[in-house]
Backbone:
């Protein structure tokens, strides 16, 4: 895996151009992670009282909904639970919906890890050269979360804690392939295509992960255009539903 890229932190001043708002850092505005088949060894941290500490206690006290400091990059994928750039307030329903897609990403990465096991086995039963010819790439997932610039409060007000909460998050993830390079782990990244899978029987494992198992009638989840399952997935998760 390579380091996660975070967008600039979100502040109410940045959103409105006004200074003097009660709470400055209200979480991240987005992140992109390139996750490799070694994700099983990733170790992040859970959320705590230090997760968005200036916002979350007051938001929970001011709202009838159950608000959670949600990870942009999941703990089990290496995400930090107290780094503000990796957090955004989510309702419990939105957070549960996000977990469905996080679980699906883990299944995709497990399929990538099985392919890597096949590569390693081939280096033993045949040779490193034969294995590299059969598996010129290793496989992973590019995962992007974008936090809505629109706020939960219809008319932003520094006295309304919902003014600090995004209306939704967008998740976009897909299989990626990376050319093997003994000197640099992840180079030549490109999208996995269906033609890649039909050309190599080992890659049929990628199809085995199917689609994420979310409730199709959920008011929290909207399918976004541009995805092409089973290789590319795009969804919007609503806080306001």
Residues:
């Amino acid at each position: 895996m390579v380091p996660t890229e975070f967008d600039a932190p979100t502040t109410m001043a940045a959103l409105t151009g006004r200074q003097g708002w009660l709470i400055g850092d209200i979480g991240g505005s987005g992140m992109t992670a390139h996750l490799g088949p070694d994700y099983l060894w990733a170790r992040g941290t859970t959320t705590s009282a230090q997760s968005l500490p200036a916002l979350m206690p007051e938001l929970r006290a001011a709202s009838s909904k159950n608000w959670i400091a949600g990870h942009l990059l999941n703990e089990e994928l290496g995400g930090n639970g107290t780094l503000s750039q990796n957090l955004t307030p989510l309702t419990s329903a939105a957070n549960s919906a996000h977990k469905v897609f996080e679980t699906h990403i883990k299944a995709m990465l497990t399929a990538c890890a099985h392919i890597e096991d096949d590569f390693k086995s081939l280096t033993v039963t045949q040779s490193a050269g034969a294995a590299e010819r059969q598996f010129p790439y290793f496989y992973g997932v590019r995962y992007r979360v974008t936090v809505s610039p629109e706020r939960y409060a219809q008319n932003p007000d520094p006295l309304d804690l919902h003014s600090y909460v995004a209306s939704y998050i967008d998740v976009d993830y897909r299989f990626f392939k990376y050319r093997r390079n003994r000197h640099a782990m992840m180079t030549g990244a490109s999208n996995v295509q269906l033609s890649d899978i039909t050309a190599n029987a080992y890659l049929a494992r990628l199809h085995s992960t199917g689609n994420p198992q979310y409730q199709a009638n959920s008011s929290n989840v909207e399918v976004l255009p541009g995805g092409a399952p089973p290789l590319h997935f795009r969804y919007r998760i609503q806080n306001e539903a």
